[in-house]
């Protein structure tokens, strides 16, 4: 099996943190990329931010100025879903909700060609379930990137029960062509990384609710003494509390409410408050100009 030809068009649906990162990586690897989002401003912001990232990479000597310019020129805004009908691969990075994702893929299936591969960047939802309502569920696969996409090498290529081996192999090889290190995984709740990560966050929430220490102290201890690159709270701020809360709910439900995966009411309150982390400017820390500082 080979990677998708790099004359192919890759459509990225959802232009938030993940969609923008995926688009950046695909365009840098030589693919033409169309970005779509229900919020048109998200698309223009993503294209602008990616352009700036390429310029920075060129300044650091990681790509030439010409490569940066060419990569930027391969990015295009899609003003409607119809605009992505000529894509060979669609990567979905929208809200972490089964019904919304199913709705999007049903719309896409009616628009794209028969050979188009449909990929979901879901963090935790069953790939089997997302595909189940499609006319051709064998063409849907998980293509799970990690945040921040340009820096994190791993991609979990997730097969649902109906996913064809050929589709999984093409996405695996395409991930390599994008400079990533893919791994095949099956559609289990949270897949590999997000499953193992659940107790890391859950114990952080328990420590906080038992007032063992504040978020900044717990983060510092795990980072400096525990050997983790980030503590649980700064990592959840990076991921987005809305996204992480949805992932915990999804894994909890998928394991028939196994108490080990019980979501935290503290996290629910963070979401209720709109303290989503970096993307909203406030989570456990405040974000803006300069270094992050504890919010409380
Ligand atoms: P985000 O909140 O930064 O961006 C989501 C974007 O999708 C928003 O711009 C929103 O306007 C758009 N959107 C929502 N519904 C839409 C629809 N029906 N059609 C088109 N656009 C729509 O979210 P983020 O963090 O980029 O996550 C996206 C997906 O990637 C989720 O499934 C999440 O679980 C997954 N993911 C997130 C990671 C993270 O660290 N944030 C890591 C790996 C996967």
Automatic annotation (TrEMBL):
Report the EC number(s), separated by commas if there are several: 1.1.1.157
Keyword hit for Oxidoreductase? yes
A GO MF annotation of the entry reads: 3-hydroxybutyryl-CoA dehydrogenase activity
Superkingdom of this entry's organism? Bacteria
Task: Provide the top EC class.
Answer: oxidoreductase
Q: Where is the 3-hydroxyacyl-CoA dehydrogenase C-terminal domain?
A: 190-287
What GO terms in the biological process aspect are recorded for it?
Answer: fatty acid metabolic process; phenylacetate catabolic process
Keywords, comma-separated and alphabetical: Oxidoreductase
Q: Which residues form the 3-hydroxyacyl-CoA dehydrogenase NAD binding domain?
A: 10-187
What protein name does the entry list? 3-hydroxybutyryl-CoA dehydrogenase
- What is the protein's species of origin? Janthinobacterium psychrotolerans
Residue numbers of the full-length protein present here? 1 to 296 of 522
């Amino acid at each position: 099996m080979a990677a998708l030809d790099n004359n192919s068009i890759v459509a990225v649906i959802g232009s938030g943190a993940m969609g923008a990162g995926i688009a950046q990586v695909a365009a840098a690897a030589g693919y033409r990329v169309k970005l779509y989002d229900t919020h048109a401003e998200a698309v223009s912001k993503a294209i602008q931010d990616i352009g700036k990232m390429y310029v920075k990479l060129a300044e650091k000597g990681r790509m030439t100025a010409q490569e940066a310019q060419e990569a930027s020129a391969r990015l295009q805004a899609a003003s409607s879903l119809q605009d992505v009908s000529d894509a060979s691969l669609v990567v979905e990075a929208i809200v972490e909700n089964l019904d919304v994702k199913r709705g999007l893929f049903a719309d896409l299936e009616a628009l794209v060609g028969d050979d188009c591969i449909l990929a979901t960047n879901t963090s935790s939802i069953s790939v089997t379930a997302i595909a189940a309502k499609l006319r051709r569920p064998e063409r849907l696969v998980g293509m799970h990137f990690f945040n921040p996409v340009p820096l994190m090498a791993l991609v979990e290529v997730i097969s649902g029960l109906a996913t064809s081996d050929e589709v999984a192999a093409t996405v695996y090889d395409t991930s390599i062509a994008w400079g990533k290190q893919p791994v095949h995984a099956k559609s289990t709740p949270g897949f590999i990384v997000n499953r193992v990560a659940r107790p890391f966050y859950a114990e952080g929430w328990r420590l906080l609710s038992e007032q063992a220490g504040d978020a900044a102290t717990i983060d510092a201890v795990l980072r400096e003494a525990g050997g983790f690159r980030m503590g649980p709270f700064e990592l959840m701020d990076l991921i987005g509390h809305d996204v992480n809360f949805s992932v915990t709910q999804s894994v909890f439900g998928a394991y028939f409410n196994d108490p080990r995966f019980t979501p935290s009411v503290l996290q629910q309150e963070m979401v209720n408050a709109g303290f989503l982390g970096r993307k909203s400017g406030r989570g456990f820390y405040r974000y803006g100009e300069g270094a992050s500082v504890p919010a409380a």
